[in-house]
# Entry
Amino acid sequence: MIRKSIALLALVVASADAFKFMSNWQPPKILTDEQKVKMADMEERFGDKKLVVITGCSSGLGRQTVKNLLATNKYHVVGAVRDVEKMEAVAEIEEFDMDNFQIMECELNSFESVEKFCNELEEYQLGKPIDRLLCNAGVYQPSLPYAKWSVDGHEQTMQINFLSHFLMVSKLIDRMRDAPDPRVVMVGSVTGNDNTVGGGGVYPIADLKNLDGFKAGFNNPVAMADGYGFIGAKAYKDSKLSLMMMSNFLHAKYNKNTGIAFSSIYPGCIAETPLFREKRAWFRKYFPIFMKYITGGYVGVEEAGQRLFQVAHDPRCSKSGVYWSWNGGPREGRGAAALEKSGQISGGGGAGGGWDSIYENDQSDKVNNLELCVDLFKTATDITGAQWPDAKTFTSPCPTLTVISTISENMIAREELKRMAERPGFNADGTPIKLGKRRKAALIADKVIVKGVLGNTVGRVGKVAGRLLLGKVPETATTGSFQEEKPLEEEQNATPPSIAEIEITQPPTKTIDIVNQDDKSALEEEIFDQVFANGKKSDHSSKEKEWKVDVEEKELATAS
# Structure
């Protein structure tokens, strides 16, 4: 029996996946009475439903998305809205199941309101992780001749659409780690992608340039991310570009170590939506007709709501780092093109196509600009005061590794402090050292005395003692035996140098060349100071330096 146990243990240890079974293992937890009550309350509130947080759901796309989520009876939805009373009226009209729908105030025009919402949400969660975060809310103010400012002194469109969602994600990301399939979805726009007609063919174009406006703090009177003049439509397009860029960046930074899927979507042009409430009456009347019958890009708000719901619900959409779009079906005037593509129009936007028309769309070079994404993350963090968690990778649950790491942690820290005590080439304040003539002379003198004189006396004795105690250093450690070298045969067969070459060639010098007399004097002074700590130079201003020592040394020499 003992032999079988030993053999089984050896087999487990030898396997490369020996500790894989422990990856999800957790030590047993002893719950307090308070924790037991909290867990019971959480079970009563949420049951087995997934927890969804969505911004801007009192109208348009968000309203339809909530309808679809609640219809499945698989989600508990928290609606973060500016107008609570309006949301309550909408919920009553739509007959939302209020047991699974919670309304919370969140004014994206204020960072303080966002932080308050996140704190209240934490209390409401009762420890339950967030499964979905849908960043949907947005404003569009294209007709403004001048910028409007948020409570925090930033341009409203950019703060509401991007900066406040940026802050919200930073506060909620840690509360999503423990969910089985967590997703953060940013509602983007075709107008933020300049590789499309809608994004690259209609002025103004989304372009953050070098983010000079963000780098300057983005405070009044700086109204645009690029630091230039304000245009309302461009502010909206820039905010959508920023959302899609940040989705890609958060995917790269946090997806692997948190398991959260970050994605953005373009649900299509919802021509009949409160998003266009600030446009002129004639525009609101004829724009849907134009989009429906001319461009074919029209999408009804109900269908758009199904698309955002799909990205939150469909198992296929658990993939991170994706920009989701839908291929619309055929319509009048485009039948031939649709037939060529088996009833599908290529490109995101159009209505129709159904559940299976979803696909991974391409993004523009601006969205995929990694360097600018990094700058956007840094500057937005400074503007919002966001505090992001460390991007820690998964560590092996191997108990041996845990024990060794615990033992060696302090030792490694001590050794690293020793190494960091010296900063060659830097001053005490961290600025690079600029070597003057005196400093260069001191370094040369140090080499002459310490590595030359002492190295050939005390150092030699130390080396002999080291060899006797520790043994000889392996030859491979000093000769670099694993490096490629010129074969010996080639060296023997090499053409010998001519007599003329031998006469011309000078033997390598082992002396230090001093170009001018000042440098030579500095070197002599430094060597004198290091060898004779209490010595003094002669005051004679002759070319040949005379060295004198104190009277005590003279008397000592006379006595001897």
Remarks:
- The first strand starts at residue 50 and ends at 55.
- The chain has a mean pLDDT of 78.
